[in-house]
Specification:
The complex is a heterodimer. Chain A contains no helices and eleven strands. By secondary structure, chain A is mostly beta strands. In chain A, the strands form two sheets. In chain A, strands 2, 4, 5, 9, 10 and 11 form a six-stranded mixed β-sheet that branches. The radius of gyration of chain A is 13 Å and the shape is globular. Chain B is globular and about 40 Å long. Chain B is mainly β. In chain B, strands 2, 4, 5, 8, 9 and 10 form a six-stranded mixed β-sheet that branches. Chain B has a four-stranded antiparallel β-sheet with strand order 1-3-7-6, with no helix packed on it. Classes of the chains: A mainly beta, B mainly beta. Chains A and B meet through strand 4, strand 5 and strand 10 of A and strand 5 of B.
Chain lengths: 111, 115
């Protein structure tokens, strides 16, 4: 099955700086790559996603990039704010099979 | 319904007992997932139901774990002869369809503690 690796496991940045989280996947059939944010004690929620026919997608301060050849994708958060502090999960899905998540990155934005 | 509903929210049980966890997905959602999240850890895939297709059980950690989905709606995850390592939050999620690109909506989870 699909295997998703995520780095780093923890990330601390100063407010206003950028944060980058990277993921790699194993199954070349994967064609959908969402990112979920889980605040402390809350359920995971989708923040952005990208499909395999697109190399980059941006939504305000958040952007995702995808390199299908290298099988990796990244989340970029610019101008970080304290409310960005949370655990972020990347995921990959081959076709209609199950969505597999990475191990998560705990982002701490220092005010 | 307003969202994915899970019950119980908390369950404390003794080692060796069986437990049942329930998930009521968003009405009309054909895809349903179970994930397990141990303290401070990631989202471990357990099982996936899509419409009338055979479920993907590839993530179930042992034969003590089973799940069913009745009438394409409510799902029950059963853990038999619970062990301490089964302690975790069990999250259910549903999606509008199984096209592969639908957003997953998660429930609040069922926190299981095995003493």
């Amino acid at each position: 099955g699909e295997n998703v690796e995520q780095h780093p496991s923890t990330l601390s940045v100063q407010e206003g700086d950028s944060a980058v989280i990277k993921c790699t996947y194993s199954d070349s059939a994967s064609n959908y790559f969402p990112w979920y944010k889980q605040e402390l004690g809350k359920r995971p929620q989708l923040i952005i996603d990208i499909r395999s026919n697109v190399g980059e997608k941006k939504d305000q301060r958040i952007a995702v990039t995808l390199n299908k050849t290298a099988k990796h994708f990244s989340l970029h958060i610019t101008e970080t704010q304290p409310e960005d502090s949370a655990v972020y999960f990347c995921a990959a899905r081959p076709g209609r099979r199950a969505l597999t998540f990475g191990s998560g990155t705990r982002l701490q934005v220092q005010p | 319904g307003a969202g994915v509903s899970q019950s119980p929210s908390n369950k404390v049980t003794e080692k060796g007992k069986d437990v049942e966890l329930r998930c009521d997905p968003i009405s009309g959602h054909t895809a349903l997932y179970w994930y397990r999240q141990s303290l401070g850890q990631g989202l471990e895939f357990l099982i996936y139901f899509q419409g009338n297709s055979a479920p993907d059980k590839s993530g179930l950690p042992s034969d003590r774990f089973s799940a069913e989905r009745t009438g394409g709606s409510v799902s029950t995850l059963t853990i038999q002869r619970t062990q301490q390592e089964d302690s975790a939050v069990y999250l259910c999620a549903s999606s509008l369809d199984g096209s592969g690109t639908g957003e997953l909506f998660f429930g609040e989870g069922s926190r299981l503690t095995v003493l």
